[in-house]
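User:
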Amino acid sequence: MSIGHAAVSVRRAGTRALLLEFDALETVLAAHQQLSRHPLHGQEELVAAARTVMIRFSSPAALTAGRAELERTPLPERQRSEAREVTIDVVYDGEDLPALAEQLSMSVEQLIEWHTSRTWTAAFGGFAPGFAYCVPDSRSMQVPRRRSPRTAVPAGSVTLAGEFSAIYPRRSPGGWQLIGRTGAAMWDLEQESPALVRPGDTVSYRAVDALPETGAAAPANPADGSEHGALEIVSPGMQTLVQDFGRAGLSDLGVSRAGVADEAAAAQANRLVGNPQSAAVLEAVMGV
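Assistant: Predicted structure:
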């Protein structure tokens, strides 16, 4: 298989997945774009990384058919003009900005101008839901990570590391260089697509003096549910969880499929009590 003049290595990853290995990130982006728009028969998930794309299929038979299709179908170059555009307002007051600019032999103003004048592409997601690794279309730089990672990076931090720029969607540890902050919600479950930036999107950073104030969300007040209880856990063992069959199709956004550990046992339990096969079950570890 090839994209333009670039060859790709195709490897099996278990019984239902193929791992495509490329020499450059640009070919990863091209393959991801093509396979997102024109999925292979039985393709369930598509996950990009810096030099690879993993395709997960619905069955071993679908994998075999998909591999044959890949080998006989050349993939085109990436079409930049068709990308979705996202603009993110940033206040450039990051804690690492002055020292990083000096390390890169630039002024603070030059580093901000470089960051805002690039056209960035979201190459792939990972690390956390809503965290998108973005690369510039021109004049890339290799930005060193911090020697000592922070134990907590604030949500909304705009950062640089290696060839990438990214925004932390929530408070979490990290070793990227903090150059600014944004109020954009990078992950919002109330939206049809929870990730503000998805792989393949074009991202522009816009410098602003201040961010809009956002009011605190009202705390949820769920119903107590005591009148509707139908099940009491008497002996949970080491751990008892409510599990379904996971959330397929979101790995590209940093959300693993998860779900029950033993799918066959869960399906059988549902059949025995007359539930739909995909209904949630109680999964017990050393329960009684």
